[in-house]
Amino acid sequence: KCEVDEFEEPIAYYYPLFTQDGDMLWKIRKLPKEFFTSEKVEDRKLLFFNQDKVGTPRKLLITEGQDDCLAAMAMLGKYHVLAVSVPNGANIKAFVDNYDWLSRIPDLYFDPDTDEAGQKLLKKVVELFPKIKILTKPKKDACEMWEARLRDEYVTSFYDAKPYKPDCILEITDELIEEATKPVEWGMSYP
């Protein structure tokens, strides 16, 4: 739903959110970027945005924002990839509240924003779902990829997604094994 001014220019977007009890409320984005909800949500168990439309698919992409969810589905739609979004900001609550549902989905993908909040959320998500595949992309989020017309790059980032690996963990390659097993070179012998 979109609210417009007297010149028919958008001034706010309304996104439907549902609780696990079946109640509906609105997440409101007042342009350019002010967010609030129509009711207090801190103590409520919210479904992910769009969760009521996707059922329990074999493959699911989770984004950080409603617009990111819509952009991701537009870019991945022909590949039959379904998407949902964290309902209310970059926090872990929806993942915890919907853990049972997410655990039934064989292929989970997460597209965190590249900002600090997104990266903090990423670390919490992989603690709950260690096998979740993470998208890496050149822009902040799916919406920016859509706006920059980087659809092919986004599709590639989806299909190239891999489980999270902290920077401190090295991948064992043949070169690394060779370096580690090379005999120690001794210095000059003492007379």
Overall pLDDT score: 91
Secondary-structure element series: EEEEHEHEHHEHEHHEH
Principal-axis shape: elongated
Question: How many helix segments?
Answer: 8
Beta-strand fraction estimate: 15-25%
Give the total of beta strands.
9
Spatial order of the strands in the main sheet?
Answer: 6-5-7-8-9
Explain what you see.
By secondary structure, the chain is an alpha/beta fold. The chain has eight helices and nine strands. The protein has helices at residues 51-54, 66-76, 93-97, 99-103, 116-128, 142-147, 151-159, 174-181, and strands spanning 2-4, 10-18, 24-30, 34-37, 59-63, 82-85, 107-111, 133-134, 162-163. Strands 6-5-7-8-9 form a five-stranded mixed β-sheet, covered by helices on one side. A four-stranded antiparallel β-sheet has the order 1-2-3-4, with no helix packed on it. The model has no long low-confidence stretch (mean pLDDT 91).
Gist of the model:
With 191 residues, the protein is α/β, with parallel strands linked by helices. Helices cover 32% and strands 21% of the residues. The protein has helices spanning 51-54, 66-76, 93-97, 99-103, 116-128, 142-147, 151-159, 174-181; strands spanning 2-4, 10-18, 24-30, 34-37, 59-63, 82-85, 107-111, 133-134, 162-163.
Tags for this model:
alpha/beta; 32% helix; single chain; 191 residues; elongated; 4-stranded antiparallel sheet; 9 strands; 5-stranded mixed sheet
Which helices and strands occur, and which strands form pairs?
Blueprint: E1 2-4, E2 10-18, E3 24-30, E4 34-37, H1 51-54, E5 59-63, H2 66-76, E6 82-85, H3 93-97, H4 99-103, E7 107-111, H5 116-128, E8 133-134, H6 142-147, H7 151-159, E9 162-163, H8 174-181
Parallel strand pairs: 5-6, 5-7, 7-8
Antiparallel strand pairs: 1-2, 2-3, 3-4, 8-9
